[in-house]
Amino acid sequence: MFFHWSGAEFVNRHLAQAVKAWGDSFRQAGDFLLVMVLLPVETALLAIPAWALLAFVALLSWHATRKPIATVFYVVGLYLIGVVGLWDKLMQTFSLVLVSTLFSIVIGIPTGILAAGSRWLRRVLVPVMDVMQTLPSFVYLIPVLMLFGLGKVPALFATVIYAVPPLIRLTVLGLLQVDPAAKEAAQSFGVTRGQMLLKVTLPLARPSIMAGINQTTMMALSMVVVASMIGARGLGEDVLAGIQTLDIGRGLQAGVAIVILAIVIDRITQAYGEPVRKRKPINRTDVP
């Protein structure tokens, strides 16, 4: 009852033509990203003393959460990762997550701003983002590997493709939910479109945008094991090695380190995404 048709040959033929025509250009672009962005960030993180990074995390956590017990737990958790000998791999993983998140922010927030102002663009982006989030990562890793080869660069592209849709969605949601009364009040003062965006709508949409950054960071971190399969080093490499050699302790140890890093990043970014804390209510006895 089914007639035979397969798109595999069509896709393979055109992909092979693309690799033949533009493969060198893609490799040069990948080498540029590797040498100018990924490796410098990783080298800088590895060069910073561990105590300095732990102190910075403590200050950042205290500034974001104002919770001393949580701050102590975050620092102790990261310290334990160093105790088990995974500090360097932690920095390698964090450098990939950091760069992927920055690329996602550069792509996602401007795209979300444009989509919030254009219904036609939103209709186009919604199915595209659905495909980006539901398509198994191994499927689009095949053309990325053919164009860029093994290593950190294809891992970066795969992570950005997987992690950027939540930021676009939540940026659009936050901008569309801005109170129209606030916009009308700003317009009554004669603000320009740029001032409306930078001083009214973006600040009011900040909780939603920060939630998008939080989700993007978590999804980028969830790709570290997949990234290790295509040559990216880090904690995912130990998880993969534990699976391949049935070394449960090694895999579990690296997995717990990923969980600790995820908790620290999640709690800090969530805290910065919360609305400005309400002022202390006025005591009735203070009112004359």
| The CATH homologous superfamily | MetI-like
Uncertain runs: 277-288
Task: Say what the CATH topology is.
Answer: MetI-like fold
CATH class (first level) name: Mainly Alpha
Explain how this protein is built.
This protein is mostly helical. The chain has a single domain, classed as MetI-like fold, CATH 1.10.3720. Helix content is 81%, strand content 0%. The chain contains 13 helices and no strands. It has helices at 8-47, 50-65, 68-83, 87-116, 119-134, 137-148, 152-176, 180-188, 193-204, 206-221, 224-228, 235-245, 248-273. Helix 3 runs antiparallel to helix 13, helix 4 crosses helix 10 (206-221) and helix 5 crosses helix 7 (152-176). The longest helix is centred in the N-terminal third of the chain and has 40 residues, at 8-47. The chain is globular and about 65 Å long.
Give a concise summary:
The chain has a single domain, classed as MetI-like (MetI-like fold), CATH 1.10.3720.10. It is 81% helix and 0% strand.
Highlighted features:
about 290 residues, mainly alpha, MetI-like fold, 13 helices, about 80% helix, globular, disordered C terminus
Secondary-structure blueprint of this entry?
Blueprint: H1 8-47, H2 50-65, H3 68-83, H4 87-116, H5 119-134, H6 137-148, H7 152-176, H8 180-188, H9 193-204, H10 206-221, H11 224-228, H12 235-245, H13 248-273
